Amino acid sequence: MLTKSQVKRILEKLPEEFSLDELLEKLILIQKVERGLKDSNENKIISEEDLKEIIVNPLVESITGVIPSKTDAEVKSEYEAYLRKKYD
Q1: Are 46 and 54 in contact (CB under 8 A)?
Q2: Read out DSSP for the chain?
Q3: Is the Cβ–Cβ distance between 61 and 68 less than 8 Å?
Q4: Is residue 71 predicted with pLDDT exceeding 70?
Q5: Cα dihedral: 57, 60, 62, 68 (round 10)
Q6: Do residues 13 and 23 touch, judged by C-beta distance below 8 A?
Q7: Which residues contact 57 (CB under 8 A, 6 or more apart)?
């Protein structure tokens, strides 16, 4: 949740004329950062390796048809081979 003082600081940094979209973007960004910091302080985070398992590996597999290996080097190598095959 945002405080009035946070909103005032955001308003002070905006130019004299601004769109509602600009203001909302900044407010949403601040709220997301605050939520992320709160989650981090409460240890509600996902490790980089878990994130890779959840998002990156399935994405690479859906694009290339290759199940990514656990190491970044192997994933990179397989993806580069796929790109060479596709664009050469």
Answers
A1: yes
A2: ---HHHHHHHHHHS-SS--HHHHHHHHHHHHHHHHHHHHHHTT----HHHHIIIIIHHHHHHHHS----SSHHHHHHHHHHHHHHHH-
A3: yes
A4: no
A5: -60
A6: no
A7: 67, 68, 75
pLDDT tens profile 50-61:
777 777 777 777
pLDDT in tens, 28-40: 999 999 988 998 8
Q: Choose the weakest-confidence range: 18-27, 49-58, 63-72.
A: 63-72
What token pair was written down for 10? 């955001």
The CB density around residue 60, as the number of other CB atoms within 10 Å, is 20
> What is the structure's pLDDT at 7?
92
For residues 59 and 75, what is the distance between their CA atoms, to the nearest angstrom?
A: 11
